Amino acid sequence: MTTALSDRHDERLRWARLALKDDSAQLRRASEDAGFRSYWRSQGQGPSRMLMDSPPALEDVRPWLRIHELLAAGGVRVPQILAEECDSGFLLLEDLGGPTLIQLLDTDNADTWFDAAITQLLRLQAIAPPADLGRFDEAALQRDFNLFEAWFLRRHLGLEPSGAELAVLADARRQLIENALAQPQVLTHRDFMPRNLMPADGGLAVLDFQDSVIGPIAYDPISLFKDAFLSWPPERAERWLAHYHARALDAGLPVPALSGFQRDADWLGVHRHLKILGIFSRLHYRDGKPRYLADAPRFIAYLDETLSRYESLRPLQALLDERVRPALSLRAEAVS
């Protein structure tokens, strides 16, 4: 163990014992995410608790605390905070105990679980966001889109897009961003998916919400039903999207007619799938986290499901067919 890791381990354990009032408490790793936070479950004299470790120099815990307060006030089920030390980056949380939703979903129970997820999502979207909250604006949307070219096409596949291909990417980026900005804007989680939902007393608890912004209303629903780590038949995902739409109308949320909402969600999905391909590549090459890229075929399949349905996006489909798919095949052959 390096000195820095050893020092952080000792600091984390000292703070946990103080917060738990248990000098014999121990911590065992519970999980980590794609960022710099890690989670540790306590073992000791009292009930188990969850410690969030967010190293201040790498990931400030204050945005998490701010959104936590906002969501809790709006009736969204979030983990209860038992102790905090912002300067050190430590939070002591209730231990919700079980697995996240992605580990529980199956073909038979998915309708019930997704209905429960929609309940929490509607509560989240009904919250009036603070005026100074970040926005999923044109600059942010453009940065996300550009991750696909920089990290997936160029870094991962080793492709150098031609002038014509760069024009295809630029046109797709313009269309997708215009669509996103034209939608009603609401509080948006940005990663509202089964691995960030956990069964708990009082409904599914919402996790990993610190990057919430003001953004397009269809973003979280499409993230939920076309998940980064779990795929469903397209017709079933469309039924769930229609179910969300009906419940959103009943709740008074500003969704357009279903046909327009379906298109909005599809196009936001395309933007998100491209972004995640870029992010997963960046996690692999920059951050040394290779496991995420194994899910790349899932996003290619999502894009195949959607792009051919919209004539103005078909040039992007052609780029996938003519350049991306052959490059992926070559990489697969090289690995094997």
Kindly provide the name of the CATH class of the largest domain. Answer: Alpha Beta
What number of domains? 2
Strand order within the widest sheet? Answer: 1-2-3-5-4
Ranges where pLDDT stays below 50 over 5 or more residues in a row are: none
- Average pLDDT score: 94
Q: Ends: how far apart?
A: 33 Å
**Rg from Cα:** 21 Å
Helix content range: 40-55%
The amount of beta strand, in percent, is: 5-15%
Number of strands: 9
Count up the helices.
10
CATH topology assignment of the largest domain: Aminoglycoside 3'-phosphotransferase, Chain: A, domain 2
List the helices and strands and how they pair.
Blueprint: H1 3-20, E1 26-32, E2 38-43, E3 49-53, H2 62-73, E4 81-85, E5 90-94, H3 110-126, H4 138-156, H5 163-182, E6 185-188, E7 197-198, E8 205-206, E9 213-216, H6 219-225, H7 234-250, H8 258-285, H9 296-307, H10 314-335
Antiparallel strand pairs: 1-2, 2-3, 3-5, 4-5, 6-9, 7-8
Helix pairs in contact: 3-6, 3-7, 4-5, 4-8, 5-8, 6-8, 8-9, 9-10
Summed up:
The protein is 51% helix and 12% strand. The chain is an alpha+beta fold and 336 residues long. It is globular and about 65 Å long.
Structural features, described:
There is one protein chain. By secondary structure, the protein is α+β, with helices and mostly antiparallel strands. The protein has helices spanning 3-20, 62-73, 110-126, 138-156, 163-182, 219-225, 234-250, 258-285, 296-307, 314-335; strands spanning 26-32, 38-43, 49-53, 81-85, 90-94, 185-188, 197-198, 205-206, 213-216. It has two domains: 3-94, Phosphorylase Kinase, domain 1 (2-Layer Sandwich), CATH 3.30.200.20; 101-335, Aminoglycoside phosphotransferase (APH), C-terminal lobe (Aminoglycoside 3'-phosphotransferase, Chain: A, domain 2). It has ten helices and nine strands. A five-stranded antiparallel β-sheet has the order 1-2-3-5-4, covered by helices on one side. Helix 3 (110-126) packs antiparallel against helix 6 (219-225), helix 3 crosses helix 7 and helix 4 runs antiparallel to helix 5. It is globular. The mean pLDDT is 94.
